[in-house]
Specification:
With 196 residues, this protein is an all-alpha fold. It is 83% helix and 0% strand. The chain is built from nine helices and no strands. It is elongated. The mean pLDDT is 91.
Length: 196
């Protein structure tokens, strides 16, 4: 929960800001029938999101323990809690670009007046996230090599309860799949315009 709240900061700064700013422009371009410029705006916004997300994502991964310690490291929040939360933050933040691009694709559908399609895709993706997380928990508990790999990679091999890290990992995998589903659907809906 703490790591989810912390990863929401870069998502809000980059993903939400850019998609909200692009929404009125996308709506105007689509309603006036200028689909070529609509797609140009989608591409430009996507490039901006990726350009700003990569360094912010890298920064959050590199200094994740310091971020967690500064914001949450008081009272009963000990060093083991900090390390576990920092590892979860790293796993959440790796999906910053897919989460942001999904928001952009959803806004693009909203600008067309289509709210049903993104709703269905997001429900399917939520089910994928649940299934992936459940599968990863089983994998973590039954395959020692996988467990040791994850614990060593995130430097939590001496902390109890590291299985909880499968939830943010499952979320990030599901968020990436969600973005791919939106991308494929978007390309199918704008087939004549996406091939240049």
């Amino acid at each position: 929960s703490f790591s989810w709240n912390l990863q929401s900061v870069p998502l809000s700064i980059i993903g939400v800001s850019y998609t909200l700013a692009a929404f009125p422009i996308l709506t105007k371009l689509y309603t006036t029938g200028n689909q070529e410029k609509f797609l140009d705006q989608m591409i430009a916004t996507s490039k901006h999101i990726i350009f700003w997300s990569v360094p912010l994502m890298t920064l959050f991964i590199v200094v994740r323990a310091q971020i967690v310690r500064v914001i949450l490291g008081s009272g009963e929040f000990n060093w083991s809690d900090t390390r576990l939360t920092a590892a979860a933050l790293a796993l959440f933040v790796i999906s910053l670009i897919p989460q942001s691009l999904t928001l952009l694709f959803v806004r693009a559908y909203y600008s067309r007046g289509d709210t049903r399609k993104p709703l269905v895709m997001n429900i399917v993706s939520a089910l994928i996230i649940i299934g992936t997380s459940y599968g990863l928990v089983i994998l973590f508990n039954t395959i020692p090599l996988f467990r040791y790999f994850i614990e060593s990679l995130l430097r939590v091999d001496d902390i109890a309860g590291a299985v909880v890290l499968m939830l943010p990992l499952g979320f990030s995998i599901g968020a990436t799949i969600n973005m791919l589903i939106h991308w494929i659907a978007f390309e199918g809906d704008f087939k004549g315009y996406t091939r240049r």
